[in-house]
Amino acid sequence: MPVMKKLLYCAAMAAIGTVDCCQLLAHPFEFPHVHLGSTMAPEYNSFAGIWYQNIRYANAPNVDPGSQSLDVYTLDLPLANAPVMIYAHGGGGDRGDKAWSMDLNLKPAWFIAKEGFVFVSINYRLGADGAGGNVQQDFADAVAWVHNNIAKFGGDPNRIFLSGHSFAAGIVATIGTNDTFLKKAGKDLNVLKGVIVIDGGGVDGRNFRSGQYLPSFLLLNTLWNAPGGAGGVKRNQAMVEALHATGHTGELVELLGKDHFMASSDIGVNDDPSTLAIHNFLNTVLGRKEARAFPPCCTASPSLPPRPR
Q1: What is the pLDDT of residue 282?
Q2: Is 101 among the residues known to form the active site?
Q3: Nearest CA to 107 among 217, 269, 261, 258?
Q4: Which of 93, 203, 264, 309, by CA, is between 20 and 30 Å from 100?
Q5: How much is the pLDDT for 24?
């Protein structure tokens, strides 16, 4: 945005008391970006954001650069030590994109304006390019890039959450419990504060160990079109039970009445069950005191309190 136009924008936003105009110009200009403005239910207070686009997190040879790129969303004002949510789209491992509007929907706005997060949406190698562990390594490399660079955007590298829908749900469950790929990226499981598995496969918990570090887990499941259907819910319940049995934190929430796509696309919709489940999970893990009750459409399994970090 040209400086004069941005100054006029600053003045307008300051007039309605949304931001400090004097500080709006401070953000990492070296990354391509656009400025956004919106409101959200139920208050409809105006807010301004920045969308940093197509940032490379890895450079594998003979790979489309876009498949190893990510977008970062922040409020358009200086942030410091904001928690970070990394999100990976679904699509069966052969389709989907980090900026597909029908999937992202309100997520970027909700996380930055309502939850106070920096939000990161990632691409990864698809189809044959993602075989042989390449997809898992892309996720780990994206996490490593975020851990190394997110402070430039006002994010806290010590409070990173990882989430994924459908196909990506199984990948984030793996990355959050098996440090093989993170170690190859120069990191370990300690870089993750929490993992959200959105209507996809969990992992076998027979190798979980008491005393090892695992991030806190939230697993969201529907019975409509989810990988494995009702069997997927049973598998994820077994994962949660294995987490509990080894002293770790895990929770399963069944999203009654929602379909597989809506489990993710409706995140950020006011009073939506996915939104509320994630909001309460983040409050618990981050130690935030405010919590909202689940609506009648949801059921949650008991969960252990988070361990001291």
Answers
A1: 97
A2: no
A3: 269
A4: 203
A5: 42
C-alpha dihedral (217, 222, 223, 228), degrees to nearest 10: -50
Distance CA(56)–CA(198), nearest Å, equals 25
Secondary structure of 242-282 in HEC code, one letter for each residue? HHHHCCCCEEEEEECCCECCHHHHCCCCCCCHHHHHHHHHH
Could you say which DSSP state residue 68 is in?
Answer: G
Sign of the torsion angle spanned by Cα atoms 149, 152, 157, 160? negative
The catalytically annotated residue of 67, 163, 166, 265 is 166
Angle formed by the axes of helices 134-149 and 167-175, to 10°?
A: 60
Express each pLDDT in 69-100 by its tens digit. 999 999 998 889 999 999 999 999 999 999 99
Lookup result for tokens 């494995």: 228
- The answer to whether residue 155 sits within a structural domain is yes
Residue 307 in any domain: the answer is: no
Give me the domain span that covers residue 11.
3-300
Low-confidence ranges of the chain (pLDDT < 70): 1-29, 224-231, 291-309
Q: Say if 305 falls within a structural domain.
A: no
Q: Which long-range contacts (CB under 8 A, 24 or more apart) does 265-272 make?
A: 265/102, 265/103, 265/105, 266/105, 267/105, 267/106, 267/107, 267/110, 267/198, 268/40, 268/105, 268/106, 268/107, 268/109, 268/110, 268/111, 268/114, 269/41, 269/105, 269/106, 270/40, 270/41, 270/42, 271/295
Report the domain count for the chain.
Answer: 1
Query: Residue 81 is part of a domain; what is its CATH number?
Result: 3.40.50.1820
Whether residue 22 is contained in a domain is answered as: yes
Q: What is the pTM of this model?
A: 0.86
Tokens of 229: 């259907």
